[in-house]
Amino acid sequence: MTNIDWSGVRDRVAALSRTPDGKVFGANAHAWQLEPPLTPAELTEVEEQLGVRLPEDYRGFLLEVGRGGAGPFYGLFPLRVVDGRWRWEGDGADLTGLDTLAEPFPHTGPFNPAAELPEPPDEEEFATVEEFNAAEDAYWELHDKVAYDPKHSVGTVYLSHLGCAYRHLLVVSGPERGTMWADDTVDDDGFSPLAGGHGERIGFARWYLDWLDEATTKAREPLHG
């Protein structure tokens, strides 16, 4: 991958800090604040602990821009040391399997783990409310076991949440390494790769810089235009 020029990004983000509330979705959460970049020694420690080399554009961001903070939607999950170990923090960051990042992400196209599940039980098929409730409880227990099985997201780093348990992740291992994906399992829509205007896969840099361009455009719009 071509090296990304991250120079000026921190200045662009800082300039957006004067944007009125409500003009850019999610900005109230991160308040346009970027955490300090990692040092090369810290990045080496991160990758040694995780057992995987992160994609180059994300590595560059961590070293030149910041370890997290201002970013798409409610912000970019920051990398921090917690109890002596590097990990990402945020709403859904715990979905990142720190011990399975070197395992290949198993999907190469849209995948919905809940697609093969049977339909939920129909109350009219049961003689009593108690029987229906028992069947419904069993169904949702099976549903959650299948839909939210951690094996579906090995080899990925969750980086941002969009609200309502929708999240975006970066693939760090396997044939889709370096691409950004959506996790919409909360709505039984499964996983799907993020794409550009011509259907092409996008990586971290495109994902972040497209957001920054859009945020800059929105910040310049009249409040009641």
From TrEMBL:
Task: Identify the residues that the record assigns to the Knr4/Smi1-like domain, covering every copy.
Answer: 37-214
> Coiled-coil annotation: which residues?
none
InterPro entries the record matches: Knr4/Smi1-like_dom, Knr4/Smi1-like_sf
Going by the entry's taxonomy, the superkingdom of the source organism is recorded as Bacteria
Stated name of the protein = Knr4/Smi1-like domain-containing protein
Native source species: Plantactinospora endophytica
Organism placement in taxonomy: Bacteria, Bacillati, Actinomycetota, Actinomycetes, Micromonosporales
